[in-house]
Amino acid sequence: MEKVAAWALLLVLLGLAALLPDCTAQGTAAAELCPGVSGGVCGKGCQLHTCEALGRFYRATLNESNPWDDEHGWELTSTMSCEQLVERATVRRAVYCSWFGITCCTPEAVAAGNCSMVNSVYGVRLVINNLNASVGDVRMVQPMQQLHDCGMRSLNLEANNLAGQFHPAWGGLKHLLDFNFGNCWITGSIPSSMRSMRNLTQINLSNNWLNGTLPVWLDELQQLRILNLGSQFGANQGTDASGLMGTVPRQLSKLQQLRELNLEANVLTGELPEALCNEDSKLLVLNLRGNQLTGGAAAVESCGGLVTLDVSHNQFTGPLPASERWEALISYRVGNNLLSGTFPPQLATSARILEHLDISNNLLTGRLPNQITLLSGLKTLLMSNNSFTGTLTEDVFYLPALLTLDVSNNSFVGTIHEAIGLAYSLQSIDYSNNPGMTGRIPPEMGLLQGLQSAQLQNTSFSCSGITQPYTAATNASCSDPARCKTPRKFGDVEAQQHVCSIGQQLPCFLRFSDYLLPREDASNMRCKYIVRLPREQALQACSGDPGVDPTDLGNDAQLLPNMSPKAHQQLWFVDPSYFQFQQCECLLVSAGCVRSGCGEGAKLSG
């Protein structure tokens, strides 16, 4: 029986060993550098060694007059020796495993192959904790090296008061997986010593003061999944440029495991490499926003698995990039470039789950294709500052998730379709600076529960309807000629004076305030501003027959919603020409007045 028990014990030990195929080599190496390791467990000697390293790191990053925000556990090293602290620990858990920001290796993690030594420190995460030190100070690096030699694989010190240039000794953390020093004050170039950190899966050095160029050896870090070097502010000698310079290295395409590449807000120049991604690329997030990249943007089409694409605020030329493989694309941001041509229907037919579309501030022309309505999950549609023409299809208002629509500063024509009342998610709409837009503000806009802002200035909208009727003969954008003519004229028909009465100057769910405010333009006027009526008042005001008064809703008035809190303070930006200046008055007669016959003290209010 004793022999049977011995064989059973041996089999159990062999089984446990089989659970650690990926960690035995690292465990052996760690045992040689980390004292007190026995049988895959960080024993008392190892715990003492680890505690002392943590204490030295704490003292190296502590400013006595401005201490850490959370010192739980760490502060004990100032009043007690590590021998005393280790003796207080339980058999199962080391004392430092309960300290703030410390993650220890557990038996379950060892069994899963995630770490090599029970009770060793696996991760240090002290984000936004007011650490004060220089990354060039070896007194900060050495404790981290000791922890690394005892099994630490993750280091996250993001958003602390860490400055200086990286000490070359950081490169000794060769088995580290996560290296996060984002949002600090680190200067200098990306250290060449990082080249030896071949096991890194994540590098985050964003929002620092780095300078120089992107290293050509980055492709040697074959395990990288996240590379974030965005938003650098370091000065480069001999130039006014701040941040990382040079071109995007073509070697980045060799990083087969890369999921996220963020190089935003630097001063990268030149064209994108044609082989930015290859057929086996796993890239999901590509952010090149805010650089000085030129040439075409078609190279991004090779990244077929993208979820997020942002190449905005560069100097790209040529057509909008589009790929039939972008089935997973959620965010497409190419604004503030020099892109030209028309909107590619392929983008809408392929990226069917797109939520954010920003093509603003380019040189785009033509009509918006009807395929845009295939994007049923679209939340943001930004098209401002282009040269789009034609009518904006009413189908855009059938997009159920649409929150923001900005088509300002284009050459759209026609009216706002009454279907806008079906865009129940809409919070912000901007039609400003489209002189060809005409007609009234549809009363159906009152059905939008969450609307917070409507910008309709510098258009031809008017309370009297279409003052210069569009017809199919004169305007090809008019798909329904009957809708492009004023159905009924207000005022004196014989004299052709289309004067709106007080009840016709605004759609039924809006009213003028009791106060006048000076306008911010050069019109030398002050006008009453526009406010939303409470539901009960709007219900009464809007119940009239829209066949008699097109500002009313009729039976649809029952659909007027109770407004969300923010929507009670709706902002309506409407030119006073819409209500024929009837709620305005001159400020200074000597400066002239928009309307003739305005004498001293004269009012234009109706």
Radius of gyration: 33 Å
**N- to C-terminal separation?**
109 Å
| Helical residue percent band | 10-25%
Please, what is the oligomeric state?
Answer: single chain
- Contiguous low-pLDDT stretches (5 residues minimum) are 1-27, 469-496, 594-606
Instruction: Please state the overall shape, judged from the principal axes of the Cα atoms.
Output: elongated
How many strand segments? Answer: 34
Strand line-up across the major sheet = 3-4-6-8-10-12-13-15-17-19-21-23-25-27-29-33
Average pLDDT level? 87
Short description:
With 606 residues, the protein is α/β, with parallel strands linked by helices. It is built from eight helices and 34 strands.
Give the tags.
7-stranded parallel β-sheet, alpha/beta, 606 residues
Describe this structure in words.
With 606 residues, this protein is of the alpha/beta class. The protein is 13% helix and 20% strand. The protein has 8 helices and 34 strands. The strands form 6 sheets. Strands 3-4-6-8-10-12-13-15-17-19-21-23-25-27-29-33 form a 16-stranded mixed sheet, with no helix packed on it. A hairpin with a 6-residue loop joins strand 31 and strand 32. Helix 3 crosses helix 4 and helix 3 runs antiparallel to helix 6. The N terminus and C terminus are likely disordered.
Topology, please?
Elements: H1 2-18, H2 24-33, E1 37-38, E2 41-42, H3 44-60, H4 82-88, E3 102-104, H5 107-111, E4 121-125, E5 132-134, H6 138-149, E6 154-156, E7 161-164, E8 178-180, E9 185-188, E10 202-204, E11 209-210, E12 226-228, E13 260-262, E14 269-271, E15 285-287, E16 292-294, E17 308-310, E18 317-318, E19 331-333, E20 338-341, H7 345-350, E21 356-358, E22 363-366, E23 380-382, E24 387-390, E25 404-406, E26 411-414, E27 428-430, E28 434-439, E29 453-455, E30 459-461, E31 510-518, E32 525-532, H8 535-541, E33 571-573, E34 584-586
Helix pairs in contact: 3-4, 3-6
